[in-house]
Amino acid sequence: MKSNKSILQSVIVISIIIILISVTPLSTALADTIGPFDPHSGINQTDIGTEEWQNPEEITTPGAPLYATVTLRHGHLESNYLQGTDYRFTIPAEATIEGIEVQINRKSDSRNPNVVDTEVSLVKGGKIVGANRALPDSWPTTLSSVTYGGSTDLWGLTLLPTDVNSPDFGVVLAAHRDNNGNSQRQALVDSMQITVYYEFTASTTIECESPVVYGDNTTCTATVTRVIGDHTPSGLVNWTSDSSGSFSPNPCTLSGANGISTCSATYTPNAVGSGIHKLTASYSGDQYFAPSSNNQTITVNPKAASVTPAAKTKVYGAADPTLTGTLTGFLAGDNITATYSRTAGESVLGGPYTISAVLSPAGVLSNYDITYNSASFTITTKAASATPDAQTKVYGAADPALTGTLNGFLVGDSVTAAYNRTVGETVLGGPYTISAILSPADVLSNYDITYNTAGFTITTKAASVTPNAQTKVYGAADPALTGTLNGFLVGDSVTATYSRTPSETVLGSPYTISASLSPESVLSNYSISYNMADFTITKADATCSISGYTGTYDAASHSATGSCTGIGSENAGTLNPGASYTNVPGGTAHWIFTGNGNYNDQSGDVLILISKAEAVCLVTPYVVEYDRQSHTATGTCTGVLGGELTGLDLTGTTHTEISSYPSDPWTFIDAAGNYNAVNGSVNDEITLRKITVTADAKSKAFGQPDPELTYQVTSGTRLAGDSFSGVLIRQLGEAKGTYPILQGSLSLSDYYVITYVGANFTINGIRYFYPLILKYGVFH
User: Per the confidence metrics, is the pTM higher than 0.90?
Assistant: First the structure.
């Protein structure tokens, strides 16, 4: 059983609900939801599964620590129904049930989850009915409320308020484990709550102004009136038509008070159609009222319209002008157009002709009451003219053919003209008049003809004298002067004498050649053109002798040499020798001779050939002691002016290790290319490091231990980090006397050569008996 605290909390909640219900007026309880409510009855129902729910009554009082539970074991995978009923809803009988929402607070044992829904269904009239809203997800291991159904879900059922208010209305839940393992699974349910969504009905009426003419509109008003309660309907009204038309606004928004709301829309017919349009207003409902609708029929009449062709005219024989007209009363959106035509006929006397119209597109014409008007088409006479061409001839020549132009006559009428002129053959007698006569006469009456005239003129005879152009080279003799006579009659024996302006320079050229004619007695018979011609003196060629250059690179600049002379060795102009070259290999010098006016310009190319010189290279080898550093021979290469050249490569002489290098190669390649390449070799050497070690003289008293043998480095140096190893020794003996100090094991790295300078070890004093000692561990 649940704890006293839980029971007390439940009692308080129920008491509050009862108090709220008792003090709330019925009219304010007309909300669209009721709940969530807990059941007042919780039982195990055996119509499904094998495993019984324990403590099913615990779903009537949600809260820890007790729950309705079922244990699912190996081979026993599915539970019975956990059924909750007697939710004690009080929904008014006038309401419409819109949806059922179930919230189940449940979990699975945290040690062994994998519990899922088998079935979640409603109970109506004590029977499990409708759609199964079970979910496929595994139950969580902590209490979690899951929602089934919703505000518009009737679970596949038709539900009345009496069904939901009944004590045998409720919900069932069955669960199963999703595997057949050995571990048991436990499903726990804390609550199974239900919320009911419902609405009330309202009546809808519609009123529209009728009739309406196509192209106009009518106003429609929808009125929504409550059937019960004290709320006023709100929300939207959607408008539809069974014919072609549109509403604005659509939907419209209701407004009102005291249970009555209205809104209006303007209806515009898009077509007359049958003439009867059925208009429907559909109320969409709100939180208190269910949807409703109503309709009204209105009459739609055709719109008056007319088409009126425009009167037209044309000139006889011309193409018909474009036929036009005016459309009145038609809506622009219907895109109605007219095609105009006239009765056949092309004669002036046959008119006027009738113009009529045909309208399209045919599909929209039924929306109009159309008046078809007509107009006249008139043909007028055609203007025409005959115009002779003006003519002329040279005195003494035959008359040219007389011609002219006919304008405005139709080709089919085959009108022709004959032209003539008044008589006369002198220049002074003119100009003479040219006129026209037209035929055939029977078609001329169809035209308004203008007869024009033209002049016939006789002119003087043209003649000319034209000298021939001549040329000569500067300094040469003139050629014979000639020319051409044109237009003169042979019988007049006209001759010409030619001369030119005197000068002998090219710069004054060209000079004018002119002519004088004879005999003078016949020259007033011609209109003479005295032409002129050019006498040109052209430039002579100068004599040019130009030489190039061939030699070895000497750091000097070299160019072409030579001269250009004129006739009789006169000055002919200026010579530019062209480019000069200093470096190998030279190049091409393009020389240019610019004449002084009487001589032609000339140019040409000569070669400036510069061969490579020999560089003098001196390379000095090296002999050094090993010092862990690299060493390279030194040297220089000098050029023709004694300056040092770049391009000497001594990298082949670079060494670090001790050795003799008798053939180290070096090369010289001039980067500028003015010197031949040179190569050779030198004898380089890196020797052992020489170091001299001199022992320090030592002595002791007879019978005493030997002092430490020491030494000094008296010439040479050691490289950083290098140190001696080993020790000096002395000749064996313990008797009084002198013993040489020897190098012993004293040594350096193998890249040193040690020169050892010895010293003496002296034993002094009385001899005592002591064991003979060999220093440094030889014997005792």
Answer: no
Q: CA 370, CA 332: separation in Å to the nearest integer?
A: 16
Quote the CA–CA distance of 176 and 369 in Å, as a whole number. Answer: 77
Which residue type sits at 47? D
Of 204, 193, 198, nearest in space to 84 by CA: 193
Instruction: Give per-residue burial for 701-711: e unless 16+ CB within 10 Å, then b.
Output: eeeeebeebeb
Question: Beta partners for 215?
Answer: none
CA neighbours closer than 13 Å in the CB half-sphere of residue 403: 4
Give me the amino acid identity at 23: V
In angstroms, the Cα distances linking 429 to 422, 461, 524, 527 are 11, 16, 19, 19
How many angstroms separate the CA atoms of 217 and 574, rounded?
A: 103
* Residue 112 dihedral angles phi and psi, to the nearest 5°: -140, 85
DSSP state string for 263-276: EEEEEEES--TTSE
Residue count of the chain: 780
Determine the Cα–Cα distance for residues 510 and 387; give it in Å rounded to an integer.
51
Q: What are the CA-CA distances from residue 611 to residues 559, 586, 605, 643, 648 (Å)?
A: 15, 8, 19, 19, 20
504 closest CA partner among 544, 532, 540, 542: 540
Buried/exposed code over 349-384 (b: 16+ C-beta within 10 A; e: otherwise): eebbbebbbebeeeebeebbebeeeebebebeebeb
DSSP summary character for residue 77? -
* Residue 777 DSSP class: T
Contacts 24+ apart (CB under 8 A), 325-333: 325/355, 325/357, 325/375, 327/359, 329/303, 329/304, 329/305, 329/368, 330/303, 330/305, 330/368, 331/214, 331/215, 331/303
| Interatomic CA distance for residues 595 and 603, integer angstroms | 11
Q: Which residues contact 403 (CB under 8 A, 6 or more apart)?
A: 388, 389, 391, 419
The DSSP letter of residue 628 is: S
Spell out the residues 6+ positions from residue 422 whose beta carbon is closer than 8 angstroms to its own.
Answer: 432, 433, 456
Sole residue written with tokens 């729950």: 67
DSSP secondary structure code for residue 258 in this structure: T
CA-to-CA distance for 667 and 682, rounded, in angstroms? 11
pLDDT, averaged per 10 consecutive residues of the chain (780 residues), comes to: 37 32 32 88 96 96 91 90 97 88 92 87 96 95 95 95 97 91 88 92 91 95 87 94 95 95 96 95 87 94 96 92 96 95 86 94 94 93 93 89 94 92 85 94 85 91 91 87 89 89 85 91 82 90 92 93 89 92 94 92 94 94 95 95 93 95 96 93 96 96 95 95 94 95 94 96 69 38
The dihedral formed by the CA atoms of 645, 649, 650 and 655, expressed in degrees to the nearest 10: 150
In angstroms, rounded to a whole number, what is the distance separating the alpha carbons of residues 71 and 718?
Answer: 95
Amino acid 342 reads R
Which three-class secondary structure string do you get for 202-227? Answer: EEEEEEECCCEEECECEEEEEEEEEC
CA–CA gap between residue 63 and residue 69 (Å, rounded): 14
CB 252 within 8 A of CB 265: yes
Within 13 Å of residue 267, how many CA atoms lie on the same side as its CB? 35
Q: Which tokens hold the place of 97?
A: 């049930």
